[in-house]
């Protein structure tokens, strides 16, 4: 039976009906895979359209007199004040030391900002933002909304049957749309490297919308297992693994989360450290790693140089179905961070050859108009 | 020749003094897609219940234990290029390795098919 201590998303019953194998994740019971299996679900997403339930993530609304952008900039290094209406961007919540508290997407909806944060960090993020921003800026969690992601080369064709306008939405833009009578927020964004959409839908309409999308011939349900292999191939970080409080966005090589103006002006938690690292470099850097052969190298695997000295650690690793081989990301000493640098991975006590590799492992195919 | 089973979901089939070892259909279903198998080299001595091989699924690595004691005579070379055989044919083409039988009495004490199926049914 369902673990009563775990929360359920509005699609829980649907997942069971579809044969989802349920596992605990961030306090929720979520499907890690459906009967097809992780590899088939991954490949389906890259060739057609996959539907993901990501309702466990936190959706938030920020608003207040004069607008929340300037205030939010105290907590993130991203360019939020100049973020245009209907546009969104990826950034991070930082701490005093320049470490990362969470990564998030921020959307400008004109009279408010809409943010999506990780499920595991939801409570801390809300508390952190409320503490820093209220009462001038109101931070409102939206637990009455579910979140679906439709990803893959056929996602636009599918969603356009329900909402014709989405076909030409620019990548990283968002709009409110009534889908089947339900007031939704649709963004052209995702966590797979493919074209696709994320749809915020009221809880009471979530199952109906999911069933409608699944009824389209191109669409299959996809679990968290394939969500992880897809994002790893896309070179995207997973909070708590590739980025955490002990990594700065500079070390993590996600400086696109730092706005150009912010690099000179600062004005966010951890700016001193981050600006210094932008100027002087860092001692370590997040890189892609390609093990030779077929054996995967998992999180925690020690990375050594040719002489046997420890130079880093794998933070995410596994099998990439689209590249049909093992892939990983991790941190290495900056001197060894050039793609092509040979390294050794200690897998079950045996050194295995690998190379620092460029990311993404599978090319991004975002919509460019 | 009858197949015997372990509580860790390995099977062993003995024919003419040679034992073939693999994992069961239940095990491969639990694992999900197998992406890599690390097999013991020919000549390695195995002890019943101790680690003999490693099977990697997309999400994790799992140990495969020697169902009986003996010496490895052959590893399944096909699994290198086609680890998915463990999923598609776990009792046949997905075999892991062959070994000698050091002590046939170990087989007598193991579960047969009916007993293993009852055991799996009880796992819930």
Structural features:
heterodimer; A: 369 residues; alpha+beta; Gyrase A, domain 2; Elongation Factor Tu (Ef-tu), domain 3; 19 strands; globular; B: alpha+beta; OB fold (Dihydrolipoamide Acetyltransferase, E2P); 3-stranded antiparallel sheet; 5 helices; 9 strands
Broad CATH class of chain B: Mainly Beta
Q: Which structural class best describes the helix and strand composition of chain A?
A: alpha+beta
Q: Name the average pLDDT of chain A.
A: 97
Instruction: Return residue spans of chain B where pLDDT drops below 50 for at least 5 consecutive residues.
Output: none
CATH fold description of chain B: OB fold (Dihydrolipoamide Acetyltransferase, E2P)
End-to-end span of chain A in angstroms? 47 Å
Topology:
The complex is a heterodimer of chains A (369) and B (124).
Chain A: H1 12-17, E1 21-25, E2 28-33, H2 38-47, E3 49-53, E4 58-64, H3 69-72, E5 88-94, E6 100-108, E7 113-117, H4 122-133, E8 137-141, E9 145-151, H5 155-162, E10 174-179, E11 182-187, E12 196-202, H6 203-214, E13 219-221, H7 224-233, H8 260-265, H9 271-280, E14 284-291, E15 302-304, E16 310-320, E17 325-333, E18 342-347, E19 350-357
Parallel strand pairs in A: 3-13
Antiparallel strand pairs in A: 1-2, 3-9, 4-7, 4-8, 5-6, 6-7, 9-12, 10-11, 11-12, 14-17, 14-19, 15-16, 15-18, 16-17, 18-19
Helix pairs in contact in A: 2-7
Chain B: E1 3-5, E2 10-15, E3 18-23, H1 25-31, E4 34-38, E5 45-46, E6 51-57, E7 61-65, E8 70-75, H2 78-81, H3 85-88, E9 97-100, H4 105-108, H5 113-121
Antiparallel strand pairs in B: 1-2, 2-3, 3-9, 4-6, 5-8, 6-7, 8-9
């Amino acid at each position: 039976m369902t673990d009563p201590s775990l929360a359920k998303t509005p699609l829980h019953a649907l997942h069971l009906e579809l044969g989802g194998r349920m596992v605990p994740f961030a306090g929720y019971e979520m499907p890690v895979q459906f009967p097809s299996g992780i590899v088939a679900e991954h490949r389906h997403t890259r060739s057609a359209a996959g539907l993901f339930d990501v309702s466990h993530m936190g959706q938030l609304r920020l608003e207040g007199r004069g607008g929340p952008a300037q205030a939010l900039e105290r907590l993130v290094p991203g360019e939020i004040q100049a973020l245009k209406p209907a546009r969104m961007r990826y950034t991070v919540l930082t701490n005093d030391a320049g470490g990362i508290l969470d990564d998030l997407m921020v959307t400008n909806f004109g009279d408010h900002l809409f943010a999506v944060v990780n499920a595991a960090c939801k409570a801390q993020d809300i508390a952190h933002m409320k503490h820093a921003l209220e009462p001038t800026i109101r931070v409102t969690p939206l637990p009455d909304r579910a979140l679906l992601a439709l990803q893959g080369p056929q996602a636009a064709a599918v969603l356009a049957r329900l909402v014709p306008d989405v076909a030409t939405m620019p990548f990283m833009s968002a709009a409110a749309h009534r889908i089947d009578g339900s007031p939704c927020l649709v963004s052209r964004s995702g966590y797979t490297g493919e074209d696709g959409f994320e749809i915020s839908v009221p809880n009471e309409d979530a199952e109906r919308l999911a069933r409608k999308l699944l009824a389209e011939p191109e669409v299959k349900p996809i679990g968290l297992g394939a969500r992880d292999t897809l994002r790893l191939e896309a070179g995207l970080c997973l909070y708590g693994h590739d980025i955490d409080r002990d990594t700065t966005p500079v070390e993590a090589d996600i400086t696109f989360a730092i706005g150009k103006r912010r690099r000179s002006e600062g004005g966010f938690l951890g700016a001193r450290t981050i600006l210094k690292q932008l100027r002087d470099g860092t001692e370590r850097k997040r890189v892609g790693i390609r093990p030779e052969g077929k054996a995967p190298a998992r999180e925690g695997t020690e990375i050594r140089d040719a002489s046997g000295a420890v130079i880093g650690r794998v933070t995410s690793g596994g099998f990439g179905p689209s590249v049909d081989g093992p892939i990983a990301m991790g941190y290495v000493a900056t001197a060894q961070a050039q793609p092509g640098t040979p390294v050794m991975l200690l897998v079950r006590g045996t050194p295995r050859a690998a190379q620092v590799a460029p990311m993404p492992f599978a090319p991004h195919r975002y919509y460019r108009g | 020749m009858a197949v015997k089973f372990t509580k860790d979901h390995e099977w062993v089939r003995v024919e003419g003094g040679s034992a073939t070892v693999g994992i069961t259909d239940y095990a491969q279903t639990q694992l999900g897609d197998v992406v890599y198998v690390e097999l013991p080299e020919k000549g390695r001595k195995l002890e019943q219940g101790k680690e003999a091989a490693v099977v990697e699924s997309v999400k994790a690595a799992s140990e495969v234990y020697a169902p009986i004691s003996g010496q490895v005579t052959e590893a399944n070379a096909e699994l290198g290029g086609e680890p998915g055989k463990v999923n598609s044919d776990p009792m046949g083409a997905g075999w892991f390795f062959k070994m000698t039988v050091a002590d046939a009495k170990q087989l007598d004490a193991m579960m047969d098919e009916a007993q293993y199926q009852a055991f799996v049914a009880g796992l819930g």
